[in-house]
Design a protein that fits this description.
Number of helices: 34
Largest sheet: 9 strands, mixed
Number of strands: 18
Structural class: alpha/beta
Helix content: 40-55%
Shape: globular
Distance between the termini: 52 Å
Strand order of the largest sheet: 8-16-17-18-12-13-14-15-11
Radius of gyration: 30 Å
Strand content: 5-15%
Oligomer: single chain
Length: 827
């Protein structure tokens, strides 16, 4: 939000233009008249509605019937608005947001204006039967400032209601979980558009985990009202109403981020969050320029079928989707890029497509469409392992050749890849190539929804009739597909090539989405909160789903074995306490995001210390068995090789902390081996992580032996075993110690700092590795309680070194885990 915006004073409109617009408004009565009014303003007034009559024009464009509005008297309206301000109607949250609304404008500091905001927002929620969502207040501001109707509460309410129904209809669902589901969906579709038009920019942002929910939340929820000045907001909304297409918001957003492309690609990574979250258009001319770019992208560059899918899934959420739409949405969720249909790629369509048939030769020989060229990818299809790190040179050469062939098409044609239409086969034949092409920066890459299977189905239904088939033999094709499917079945131990597909908040709960929404729309200074993309095979980057969090009874002392202040000191700090009430619209306090914090309420240092140590309050020492156990082994690998009496074999979990059970694992503790030399350590660590690289024997090799550029493959379950990752941003005062976007890795014996790999989506680079035994202290800054400093002892020295990070998700979980493992190492 522009908190430095000065009081808005619109310049008077040219008298002749104003007179002609007023005449056109008075002559508007029917739908045909509204169409003529639109055309007149676009052509004669250059798309700018005079502010003196903007409210009246908007009433026509939003189809607001004044007779229906005035059917309710002003006294009746005022009484009902007053009665709607109730505790059970989001009163507390509305009052908070009203005080935060346009704080730089004197108008919104006046008590009567704030009262009007409160009553109108409360009445809207009551009449629509919806929960208040933060951002409603920003959407109401432009209507209150209209010159001609802003002083009439009934007209303001009618315009506000009609605008939300037309351009953000998903907020009107009474089922809260559906509201946040559409918001998550909006982020996904916006991401697909950005990937389609500028894959280089998309993957650059992706490498720093700058996903749309971080910077585009207020764009999509408030239609830029929170980000733009009043003047710029009016300019954008005028165009939006004249165009009468709510999808234009998404394409305008794409145009806005593309306008900052060079600045984003060349900026220092420490400035990236600030640039993204402060993007804005400040003048009417800039808004019109971006609108023209976005409109060109929508009309002339985006496949019509994808626009129809967006409209159905985002603009008509209250309608029950038909089977065709649901199947299209499901197909898109499993694809790498935007999907097209047969109607899009046929000659004579609005876009020019070059179509590649990516099916194996044995299937292509049984039939193909004449418009498609065959792309040779035999080495890729026959590879035993499709994970990029394990592909052979022949596969890489084949992919490189495909990239170069498609690079020549870039800028002149859209590219469509056709697969068999069987999801299992498309994951082998189509998606790896689509992923590679976009990662190489080739724009406008899509896959055909339903593949060749859908092409034959369309032919059977007689639509379209201009599809020409070559050598079509359905029976032989089906047999070839069955052979291909059997060959690539899981029994053949082929592995999927989904390194990292486009999926943003789809895996997050409604409570987590609320936290993103609230943090983006309530704080005056936006803070970057990276959201981690899960890999295709395992949710490696999420915080612990369960951590012991039992507090001792009042007055009860903690067990002495968990008094960590001897070696591990958690320095007390004054930190924000969690909000007592959930975000408005939450069904219950339990559904609120666990990491949400109030910036206005504080708690003392004793409570903070208690909170940090609570997870272990019930872990008091009990009578141990006669056989000595290795506590590190029990924590690190609960499925260690051992005989478990009367217990069936269990499948090894991808996350060793997901299901830790009591098991009778007996093991004699070995004495630590003497530390090896630096050269021996280098030979042990190698260049990349391997299965068991952080187990007990690694303690004999100094971490100083790890080479620069050491990598960790997050898809390698053996290498990732026992490592819990937490997304962080580094302390800006230590740019040389820890980069701006990092991961804090916590294992039983080590603490790691990892960086996203520059060129590989499934690799991470190890920046710092320190032993848990060397951890001396965890501290927090008094005025920056979210900044955690880890202090380590240095070998053979009384000195220490420290690293500071800000954990974005799961701070308490990370502290609890470190404390737990530190206690285990001491025992």
């Amino acid at each position: 939000m522009n908190n430095t915006e000065s009081e808005w004073k619109p310049a008077p409109t040219d008298p002749e233009t104003l007179r002609r617009v007023r005449v056109a408004v008075k002559a508007t009565a029917s739908a045909a008249d509204v169409a003529r009014l639109r055309s007149f303003i676009v052509q004669e007034a250059k798309g700018i509605i005079p502010h003196e009559v903007r409210g009246g024009v908007w009433m026509h464009l939003l189809r607001v019937n004044s007779d229906e509005v005035y059917a309710e008297t002003s006294d009746q309206f005022a009484k009902r608005a007053m009665e709607s301000v109730r505790d059970d109607n989001s009163k507390e949250q509305i009052l908070k947001d009203v005080t935060r609304t346009r704080p730089s404008l004197e108008t919104f500091k006046q008590s009567h204006v704030r009262n009007a905001l409160t009553k109108l927002l409360s009445l809207f929620c009551q009449r629509q039967g919806v929960s208040y969502i933060q951002g409603f207040n920003e959407l109401l501001v432009p209507f209150l400032l209209l010159d001609d109707v802003g002083q009439n509460p009934r007209l303001v309410y009618a315009l506000y209601s009609a605008f939300l129904k037309s351009f953000v209809p998903w907020v009107l669902d009474s089922a809260e979980h559906k509201v946040f589901e559409v918001l998550k969906r909006a982020f996904r579709y916006f991401g697909r558009l950005l990937l389609y038009f500028d894959p280089n920019l998309f993957w650059m942002l992706d490498s720093y985990f700058m996903t749309p929910d971080i910077y585009a939340t207020s764009w999509l929820v408030t239609i830029f009202a929170r980000n733009f000045t009043v003047e710029a907001t009016y300019a954008l909304w005028d165009l939006l109403l004249l165009e009468d297409n709510a999808l234009s918001t998404y394409f305008f957003a794409v145009a806005l981020i593309l306008s900052k492309r060079d600045e984003i690609l060349t900026c220092d990574e420490s400035h990236l969050p600030e640039i993204l979250m402060n993007m804005s258009a400040t003048t009417v001319e800039e808004v019109h320029r971006l609108w023209k770019i976005g409109n060109e992208l929508r009309v002339a560059q985006t496949p019509p079928s994808f626009q129809r899918l967006m409209a159905s899934r985002l603009l008509r959420p209250l309608e029950k989707a038909n089977a065709s739409t649901l199947n299209a949405a499901k197909s898109l969720a499993g694809a790498v890029t935007v999907q097209t249909t047969l109607e899009d790629i046929m000659p004579g369509g609005p876009l020019h497509f070059f179509t590649w048939d990516c099916r194996p030769n044995e299937i292509v020989r049984c039939g193909k469409i004449a418009q498609a060229a065959v792309l040779p990818l035999d080495a890729l299809r026959n590879a035993d392992d499709l994970i990029k790190a394990n592909r052979g040179n022949e596969v890489e050469q084949e992919l490189d050749q495909a990239v170069e062939m498609n690079r020549t098409l870039s800028g002149s044609s859209h590219i469509c890849l056709i697969g068999s239409g069987e999801p299992e086969l498309d994951d082998l034949d189509v998606n790896p190539l689509a992923l590679r092409l976009t990662q190489e920066g080739i724009p406008c890459v899509s896959t055909l929804r339903g593949g060749f299977k859908e092409v034959m189905s369309s032919m059977d239904n007689g639509n379209p009739d201009n599809v020409e088939f070559v050598d079509l033999d359905r029976k032989s094709m089906q047999e070839a597909i069955m052979r291909r499917t059997k060959k690539s079945s899981p029994s053949a131990k082929r592995k999927d090539a989904k390194e990292k597909y486009v999926s943003y908040l789809s895996e997050k709960s409604d409570a987590e989405v609320k936290e993103v929404l609230n943090s983006m729309l309530t704080s005056r200074q936006l803070v970057s909160r990276p959201i981690v993309l899960p890999s295709a095979d395992a949710n490696l980057f999420t915080t612990m789903s369960q951590v012991e969090n039992a507090s001792p009874a009042k007055g009860e002392k903690r067990p002495s074995e968990f008094n960590l202040l001897a070696d591990l000191t958690i320095a007390p700090a004054i930190a924000p306490e969690p909000q007592k009430s959930p975000p408005v619209g939450a069904a219950s306090a339990g559904s609120a995001a666990s990491n949400s914090q109030s910036q206005s309420q504080l708690k003392d240092s004793k409570n903070l210390l208690d909170d940090l140590l609570n997870p272990f309050s019930e872990s008091s020492a009990k009578d141990s068995s006669k056989v000595q156990k290795d506590p590190l082994e029990a924590l690190f690998n609960p499925f260690a090789d051992a005989t478990v009496k009367d217990s069936p074999k269990e499948e090894r979990s991808k996350n060793p902390f997901a299901d830790v059970r009591e098991r009778s694992v007996t093991r004699t503790v070995e004495k630590p081996k003497p530390e090896f030399s630096l050269e021996e350590a280098k030979a042990f660590w190698g260049k990349s992580a391997f299965a068991g690289w952080l187990d007990e024997k690694s303690m004999a090799y100094p971490p100083a032996g790890i080479r620069k550029g050491f990598t960790l493959n997050v898809e390698n379950e053996g290498a990732m075993q026992g490592i819990q990752l937490f997304p962080c941003s580094a302390d800006s005062t230590q740019p040389k110690k820890v980069p701006v976007v990092v991961y804090l890795g916590v294992s039983v014996r080590y603490i790691l700092f990892l960086l996203p790999h520059r060129s590989s989506s499934h690799q991470m680079e190890l920046s710092i590795l320190r032993r848990m035994l060397d951890l001396k202290r965890i501290s927090f800054r008094k005025h920056e309680p979210d900044c955690m400093t880890l202090e380590f002892a240095q070998n053979r020295s009384s000195d220490s070194e420290s690293f500071s990070v800000r954990i974005m998700d799961g701070r308490q979980d990370a502290i609890a885990l470190i404390t737990k493992y530190k206690a285990a190492t001491r025992s």
